[in-house]
Amino acid sequence: MVELTRPLCCRVLVVDDCRDTTTSMAILLRCWGCDAREANDGPTALKVADAFRPDVVLLDLGMPGMDGCQVARQLRRRADGRPLLVVSVSGYVDEPHVRLALEAGCDHHLAKPVELGELQRLLASCQPEQQEEPTVGEAAPRDE
To answer: Which of the residues 24, 92, 113, 133 could staple to 97 if both were Cys, CB 3.0 to 4.6 A apart?
Structure first.
């Protein structure tokens, strides 16, 4: 696991039809400094997202009723141009499922069980004060 040098301060909505999954993930995210909310179905996820306005949504694909792809499409329509990182989190890891999730509006796909270091890196990438590492050929900014 990546060691946190500072708390992750973002708003995360965890969506999964398994309550144990949403509860345990939300607890972990709060320990990392995130403001986390939970939803256990698609319609509830959309209501919570409208009120909470998350920075990140961790979204199960295989939910009964409104599946994760349908939720992702609706989240994108409702985002009103604001930044929103949508990450599908699923046991479906075959190429057709991942492609469907990305086409529906997910930015990334994580396989269950989630590798925590990878999740931390994704969450850290959406921090507003986070500066990108310089690429080859660019000088790092100097403090003067």
So the answer is: 92
